[in-house]
Structures are given as C-alpha cells and as structure tokens.
Design goal:
With about 280 residues, the protein is an alpha/beta fold. It is about 40% helix and about 20% strand. Strands 1, 2, 3, 4, 5, 6, 7, 8 and 9 form a 9-stranded mixed β-sheet that branches.
Length: about 280
C-alpha cells in the first residue's frame, strides 16, 4: 500500500514539473506596435509676410518707429524699409525692383506707377508736411529771412530736378517772390545761388548741418530732426504743403498684407506715429 502511494506521488511530481516547464517556455506575446507619432501634436507655424517698403527719405525716422509698432501688433509680418528720393525709388520699381509698398513724398511719383499699371489703381494719402529754410546752427552767412537766399555769395544746397523737394521748393520760391519787400529778380537770384544738387532731402540737411552750404529748403520734419541746423521762418501765406501718398506695387507677392499696412499707416495708429515726428494729417 505504501509502495503504491509512493508511485502515485512520483507520477504527480513529474506531471507538475512538466507543466511548469511548459509554462516557462511558452512564447511571449508580441509587444503592441509603437504608436505612430501624432501629426496633430505640432501645430503649423503662422505664415510670415515680409514686406519691402520703398519710402521717401524724409519718412525714415517715422517708419523706424512705425515698423516696431506694426510688427508688435501683427506677429508674423516683417517690414524691410528702404529710403531714398521718391523719384529714385519710382524708377527702381519701374525697372523691376521687388517692392511691396511705395510711400512717396508726393502724389506724382506713385501716380506714374498707376498710369503704367505697375501699382494699385488708387493712391492712399497718408501725411502732409510743411517746408522751411534751414541754415547751419551758427549761421555764419547771417541768413535772417528767406529773402536772404537771393543775396550774392549765399550758397544754397538743393536737390536734383526730379526730387519732390525741388518741386515744392520752386513753388515756395515763386510764392516768396510775390511777398512785399522781395526783389523782382528773387527767383533768378535764388537759382543762381544753388551751389549743389543732392540726391535727396536728407543729404541737403546733412550738408547744411556740416556747414558745406549756407542754407537750404527742406521739409519741416527733417529740419526738426537735425540738431546741427537752425530754422528760418517762412511766411505762412507763402508756405507750400507737401502731400505724401502711398500705393501697393502690382508685383507684390503679398498684396493683402501690403494693403493692410498701408491702411494701418493712414489710420489712427499710423497717424499717431507720424504726428509724433511732426507730420500733418492727410486731410
């Protein structure tokens, strides 16, 4: 009896060992495949609009400020500003320069682009500016009134014939010639005193400030921004008001963003920046 019990126990032990071994060698279930990266985890970044702004040199300081404010209010938009005489910039655009917005110190130059189907069909007037006479801070030639611009020996610094400031200056000189006390040959005498013609109004201010000339006619905003020059008052009824106009270039890769910037510049926020630099409202 005891022998038979031992045999049974031995058989059970073998079965248990076999079952244990079988469980240990059973294949491990394959690991679940790694989840594919979620395409929704990274949101696409907003498209960036880089706008190239061609602007009259008299707008440089104001546009530097405007760029900071506009880019802060419009993330994703970057303004690249290039300044020169409006006439020079208009020519560059005609020749295919990659500009998005043209901001001119007059209406004539942007209108040329419109007439040639190179810009938007309408202009946006965004600022006005007064004219003034400047002299070096120490005023060595003793220019006291605009009438002195016609005195013999006075060296007047002016701009090229195509530059808008020249057109405005010629109008001012013509108006001054009609003022009481001005000589009959004032216009001719003024023109005879022009010692050099610069590329833009900024160059006139710089040259007069360095005493390389005795006087010049410039925009009020440029005169106020230069510490090395003094102003000679112009009779209010003789002064000329310059109108600044802008347009979107037809070849712009970002016409929507370009129009948005031009609208902003002519609107309350842009006007606040411009007025801070002495520009007058467009109306």
């Amino acid at each position: 009896m005891r022998s038979r019990l031992g045999v049974v126990l031995s058989v059970l032990a073998v079965v248990l060992v076999a079952c244990s071994a079988s469980g240990a060698t059973s294949p491990t279930a394959p690991a679940a495949p790694a989840a594919s990266p979620s395409t929704a985890s990274t949101a696409p970044s907003a498209a960036t609009a880089e706008l190239t702004i061609y602007a009259a040199s008299s707008l440089k300081s104001a546009l530097d400020k405007a760029r900071t404010e506009y880019e802060a209010a419009n993330p994703g938009t970057r303004l690249v500003i290039s300044t020169d005489a409006s006439s020079a910039l208009e020519t560059k655009i005609e020749q295919g320069a990659p500009a998005d917005v043209f901001l001119s110190a007059d209406t004539a130059n942007p209108q040329k682009l419109v007439d040639k189907a190179l810009a938007s069909a309408s202009l946006t007037n965004f600022a006005k500016n007064k004219l003034t006479v400047i002299v070096p801070k120490d005023n060595p030639a003793r220019v006291q009134t605009p009438a002195d611009l016609a005195k013999a020996g006075i060296k007047v610094i002016a701009a090229g014939d195509a530059v808008p400031i020249t057109k405005y200056a010629d109008q001012l000189v013509g108006n001054l010639a009609k003022q009481p006390g001005y000589p009959a040959d004032f216009v001719d005498a003024y023109n005879a005193n022009i010692a050099s013609r610069e590329d833009n109004v900024g160059a006139i201010v710089a040259k007069v400030g360095m005493e390389q000339g005795d006087a010049g006619i410039v925009y009020m905003t440029d005169a106020n921004a230069q510490a090395d020059v003094a102003l000679v008052d112009v009779p209010p009824d003789a002064d000329v008001i310059a109108t600044y106009a802008g347009t979107v270039v037809k070849s712009s890769a970002n016409p929507s963003a370009s129009n948005a910037f031009l609208t902003w510049l002519a609107g309350p926020d842009g006007q606040a920046v411009l007025s801070g630099f002495g520009f007058l409202p467009p109306t």
